[in-house]
């Protein structure tokens, strides 16, 4: 990965120079203008897929949730380029990939300033054939719960706190291997209760999906397999780092 940045009056772009050799201020707009190859829904997030060299890119526009999001759906207070949500997430993804963790490769992160506010977009390489865990559950598909538990432990071991760990952000690729998406507001932290909070948030998401009309019941055995794999990975790490 070759991080580079470009800036001009009212705009900024952080990008991988190996994937985007010569971007300009209209780079993101040009992606949105292409005919989309598909549209994905993950919670309130909408992602457009566009054709790109060597595969597809996922283009996401940052939007707020909740009541405040109805008033200013995509405006954020300007506090400098390095503190924009898109640049922070781009750098977080780049660091996680350096650590060998299963996250999408970041392509570009762009902001456009408007007085005291800005709007933002993030472009990542699409994981081929991946589907959200929520979709797999809704379709009654097979899920490698132990694999998900081990994956979550790997992020926790690295100190990576996902701000919204839910069944929409856990992706399963063509081989059934799990990945994590959407690292907006994620950060690195020392070990603490946030790990248990992460797991509890995921469980609430799974129970919410199970409560939807026509959805399969909550898979209690699958959840126990996830926790068992998580705990086993933790024990193995403690054993390896012991005296």
The best one-word shape is globular
CATH fold-level name of the largest domain? Phosphorylase Kinase, domain 1
Poorly predicted tracts of residues: none
**Gap between N and C termini:** 37 Å
Our Rg estimate from Cα atoms comes to 19 Å
Secondary structure: number of strands: 13
Written description of the protein model:
The protein has 243 residues and is α+β, with helices and mostly antiparallel strands. It folds into two domains: 3-125, Phosphorylase Kinase, domain 1; 131-240, Orthogonal Bundle (Transferase(Phosphotransferase), domain 1). Helix content is 35%, strand content 26%. It is built from seven helices and 13 strands. The protein has helices at 27-33, 66-71, 85-98, 133-138, 145-157, 194-210, 220-240; strands at 3-8, 11-16, 38-42, 45-52, 55-61, 76-77, 106-114, 117-125, 131-132, 160-161, 170-172, 178-180, 187-188. Strands 1, 2, 3, 4, 5, 6, 7 and 8 form an eight-stranded antiparallel β-sheet that branches. Strands 9-11-12 form a three-stranded antiparallel β-sheet. A two-stranded antiparallel ribbon has the order 10-13. A hairpin with a 5-residue loop joins β11 (170-172) and β12. α5 crosses α7 (220-240). The chain is globular, with a radius of gyration of 19 Å. The mean pLDDT is 91.
């Amino acid at each position: 990965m070759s991080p580079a940045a470009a800036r001009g009056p009212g705009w900024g772009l952080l990008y991988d120079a190996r994937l985007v050799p010569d971007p300009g201020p209209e780079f993101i707009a040009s992606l949105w203008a292409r005919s989309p190859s598909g549209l994905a829904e993950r919670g309130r997030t909408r992602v457009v897929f566009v054709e790109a060299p060597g595969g597809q890119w996922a283009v996401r526009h940052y939007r707020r949730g909740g009541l405040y999001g109805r008033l200013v759906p995509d405006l954020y207070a300007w506090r400098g380029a390095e503190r924009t949500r898109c640049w922070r997430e781009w750098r977080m993804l780049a660091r996680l990939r350096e650590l060998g963790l299963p996250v999408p490769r970041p392509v570009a992160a762009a902001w456009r300033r408007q007085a005291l506010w800005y709007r933002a977009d993030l472009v990542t390489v699409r994981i081929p054939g991946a589907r959200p865990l929520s979709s797999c559950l809704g379709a009654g598909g097979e899920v490698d719960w132990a694999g998900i538990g081990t994956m979550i432990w790997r992020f926790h071991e690295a100190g990576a706190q996902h701000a919204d760990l839910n069944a929409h952000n856990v992706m399963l690729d063509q081989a059934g291997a799990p990945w994590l998406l959407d690292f907006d507001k994620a950060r690195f932290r020392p070990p603490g209760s946030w790990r248990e909070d992460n797991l509890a948030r995921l469980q609430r998401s799974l129970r919410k999906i199970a409560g939807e009309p026509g959805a399969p019941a909550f898979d209690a055995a699958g959840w126990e397999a996830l926790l068992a794999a998580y705990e086993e990975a933790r024990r193995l790490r403690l054993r390896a780092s012991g005296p």
